[in-house]
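Weekly sync notes, structure subgroup
Attendees: PM, AL, DS (notes)

Item 1: joint prediction request from the bench team. They want all two components modeled as one assembly rather than separately. Inputs as received:
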Amino acid sequence: MPNNIALSLLRGLALVFLILGATPISAQDDTVWNSLDPKNTVYLQLKEGMVVIELNPTFAPKTVKRFKELLEEQFYRSLSFYRVIDGFVAQGGDESDIDDNPAIKTLKAEFEIDWPLKPKDKDEAKDWQPMSWTLVQKDDMFAPFTGFIDGFPAARDDKKAGKAWLTHCPGTVAMARNDDPDSSSTDFYIVIGQAPRYLDRNLTIFGRVVWGMDVVQRIKRGSTLDNGIIEDDLERSWISRMQLASSLDVSDRLDVYVADTNTKSFSDMLRKRRNRSDKFFHHKPPKVLDICQVPVPSRLEKASVRRR
Amino acid sequence: MPNNIALSLLRGLALVFLILGATPISAQDDTVWNSLDPKNTVYLQLKEGMVVIELNPTFAPKTVKRFKELLEEQFYRSLSFYRVIDGFVAQGGDESDIDDNPAIKTLKAEFEIDWPLKPKDKDEAKDWQPMSWTLVQKDDMFAPFTGFIDGFPAARDDKKAGKAWLTHCPGTVAMARNDDPDSSSTDFYIVIGQAPRYLDRNLTIFGRVVWGMDVVQRIKRGSTLDNGIIEDDLERSWISRMQLASSLDVSDRLDVYVADTNTKSFSDMLRKRRNRSDKFFHHKPPKVLDICQVPVPSRLEKASVRRR
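Output from the run, pasted for the record:
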């Protein structure tokens, strides 16, 4: 027993290592937790484990609608992640896997939305409600403004017509396409590596992983020399099920909560990350934040019995 | 058979999806491949698979020297990754795991090196050799210059005394420490998520993963609410062996090759990634590159019989 105490004391010391660099990753005590809307929550079940995805109908209404139809017809069941490049994306949901002559219904691009600025007209301005926006950074390399919109990493440009778009960060879920911007159909990808921000405004982002990124990281990779394609079906990670939370009984749903990014608590966390005043920092980092390096805390309160 | 042909044709079509976004990840035909120096190559063997790490004695001579001593005494054998935060770092090599009273030998910080600029004096300048440097980006959010130094992602500052340092990118290997800059001992970490560049110049980076990042991504995560700590030993990923390539017979070594970043071919790839002219890009991305989003190609020519 004394040994165990000594061990845990020592471990306590060892754990100081790098803790300061990481503290902001865990949630603060005053975090405001939101439950997910079951109508916009997807359970992606893999042999590797369960992944929970939050859909975003504000930014991609048509894509989300179509995706829900596909879920309802159990379209993704027994499809695979057939193109997986470590540090980049895991891509799956290609119906040619099982159907030689799929009826392809393509989707209109939903790359960005209008960002209505406050009207100059006094009367119009009276009833105007700003969209939820929590600033993270001005002028990073890729956008004039980055920030969070209801938990989703996003960017804005106020010039001329204001535009806002969701950004490619780890955990971002988007529709694949070919050269035609309106050519998405069923293939989707999850970003698994350093944010490919150059893809922003070029693909329809319609969701984000809120739970189970560790599971996503276990998806079997292809060779980069083969552009990530895994030819051998047996080598791939397969989708056992992919279904909308609302299609399950309440008792079978997972209780996942995500931090509200539209709160003082979250803004405080951002400020602390920007001004790293801790004595750990021998060299004071620049006072900047990478939108994709700001974790949005989430927690699982109750695992469903169906969870594997 | 005709079905198979149709299938592969269809798959061919499907594969067009997103290929353009990814093309630059695979190596170009004219890539110059370098073999690794066995004296600076580490094999990290996990149950999950084999990871190959290249050490960097130029930036961290003392740390590399000490790390090799630890490898020689098989120090890391049967130690674990006890603190693993998805999207951040996998940390392991804590001797308090197995020894209640470890003799801790601490290491001097090696956070940056001098970057000798060309001397103004003509005679001195005559024999001056510039260090290898391939520019990636000026003024990203974290440094005046980023680029590659012999395959390693790095950054520079030319102001006053020139300094150069290795950057925190996915795959970066560094020594953990506590508040004292000179307090590293045996604990190391591998970056597994979006680059925590704010840690640059604050920790001793001494290596990079050149093969097996997919294996690293399978390392068992802890809970972010517990700061990534995995209390239950049985739940952790363990290090079966960690040894220097040069300590093995030539026939037992892996033939890993890495792209030479100091070549015209590599610079051409950088230019193409910066100026994305392909018609895939509906919205032309800004002409910038994130140092941590530029993959350095590597390939495995021959797997050793010992490889699992």
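Discussion: The first strand of chain B starts at residue 33 and ends at 35.
Action: AL to compare against the crosslinking data before next sync.
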